[in-house]
Structures are given as structure tokens and as C-alpha cells.
Amino acid sequence: xxxxxxxxxxxxxxxxxxxxxxxxxxxxxxxxxxxxxxxxxxxxxxxxxxxxxxxxxxxxxxxxxxxxxxxxxxxxxxxxxxxxxxxxxxxxxxxxxxxxxxxxxxxxxxxxxxxxxxxxxxxxxxxxxxxxxxxxxxxxxxxxxxxxxxxxxxxxxxxxxxxxxxxxxxxxxxxxxxxxxxxxxxxxxxxxxxxxxxxxxxxxxxxxxxxxxxxxxxxxxxxxxxxxxxxxxxxxxxxxxxxxxxxxxxxxxxxxxxxxxxxxxxxxxxxxxxxxxxxxxxxxxxxxxxxxxxxxxxxxxxxxxxxxxxxxxxxxxxx
Length: 319
Hints:
Blueprint: E1 3-9, H1 16-27, E2 34-40, H2 47-57, E3 62-66, H3 73-82, E4 88-91, H4 103-110, E5 116-120, H5 128-146, E6 158-161, H6 178-184, E7 189-193, H7 209-227, H8 232-260, H9 268-300, E8 311-313, E9 316-318
Parallel strand pairs: 1-2, 1-4, 2-3, 5-7
Antiparallel strand pairs: 4-6, 5-6, 8-9
Helix pairs in contact: 5-7, 8-9
């Protein structure tokens, strides 16, 4: 089974040579064919020339995908996956904070029957205030909202069976939510501790603003995973709730008119009741439109609404 390493690169000229040496050292101990795909995400330093040199030095194992400009880590990972050939895929960073020596451990766990093995940086070597604390809050929030409990969503070092990455596409900055998407198509997930080292060369590409992006992306992920196939449950449920509030307010107005002779039309509660009813009705219409869009999406592309792990036919199991 071939192993594909996917490594996005953005201005990492000081780390690439050492990273490839560490990868070569690790791969020599593994009895499987391998490739490493570097994705240059619009670097403006000497990263691309170094990558070209590595590809010339070891054309059997090294491939380089070059972007026209900087598209972000998610796009780089998606491009690497699209251009890879391995049955097993390893994602990792190019900043030398992930340790290639952890790859055999990830693969061993994967061979226990898991579809995805995620790294957990227990002793993380980053700034405690701007990186570690927001990361802990984000990991807790993502786990609570999605129901996929991991300690370290932000750790890029993960091992996947290719099948766990099929059935969904990555957009925006959704790479940190790959385990959630994989779980939505039935992937078995495990998490193991991995090494983490302080950055020696280059600068980090993330700061506190990343926390805001994570929260906004979480809304999208929750909607796609929980309601992507049945949006009417969200929009229709919200609409029914608003219309129920409208009905309760209207009943109160009628009772006040009967027993206290208070005008219905003159009360601001009447405007509230009408507004809630209109919003509820519009929400239900949006749900119906979303249902039509979901069906158009699946039927126009002939995309199934299910995923198959294996088929047993004639007493034999087929993956």
C-alpha cells in the first residue's frame, strides 16, 4: 500500500531541507512505497526553488504542486490530496514542529482498523496566550457542538485512509474540521499523543484572529453535518417556533380584548405577533427551497446520499 505525505508550504525556506531529511530517515524504516507532495502556496521567499531542488534530487518520491498565488492551507491540502496516489495519506506541516518520526506510530494505530488517526500535541511548544489557550477553547467548543471529541483539532499531523476523505470537499479554511466531515461519512477515529517542537525558523501564520474564524466556520460545519441533507428540519423547525410564538401572542391579545376591553390593533404586541408569523412563514419557505437545492445537488451529479464501507457477497468481503 502506497503512502502519500501531503505538506503545504508557505515561506518555509529555512525548514524544508531538514524536513525532507527527517522524512527520508523515517521512510527508510517503513516497508511500503511512499511519495511526498509539497504544495507551494504562493511562497515569496526561496521555498519554491528549494522544493524544485528536492524534486530533482529525488524524482521518485518528491512531487511539487505550485499555486499561482496564496490560497490558504485548506486549498493546499485539498490540492495535495487530489494529486496524490496513496491508499494512506499523511498530512503534516512544513514548519518542523511536527515530527516525521511519529508517522510509524500513526500508521500502526491506523492498522488497528481506524480510518483516521489524529495527532494530539500534549506538550505544545507555542505561545501560551495567543496560541495554546485559544486552541483549548476552540477544541472544547468544536467537540461539544459537533459531537466528535478530539483534544487537538489544530494538529495538522493526521493519518487517513483515502476512503475517509471521499464524499466531501474542502472549502475556505475548513481543514481543521476534516475529522468532523470524516465522521459524518462513517469514519472510525482515534487520537494519539505526538511530539511537538518549538519553531526554529520562519514565522507562524496564525494569531488570535484565527479564533473568530473557527467560530464562524463552526456554524457552517454544524449546519452541513446536521442539516445538510434535511435543511427543512432547521428552517422548518425555526419557522414553526416563530409561528407558535405569534399564535401565543395573538391569543393573549384576544383574551385581553375579551376580559379587559384592551384594543387588539392598538397594542404593540399585535405588530410583534404579525412579524413573528411572517418570519416563521418565510423560514419555512426557505426550508422548502433548500430541500429543492439539496435534491438538485445530489441528482444532477448523481451523488449518493450514503457511503459504503464494504460489501459481502458470495461469502467474500469487498472493500
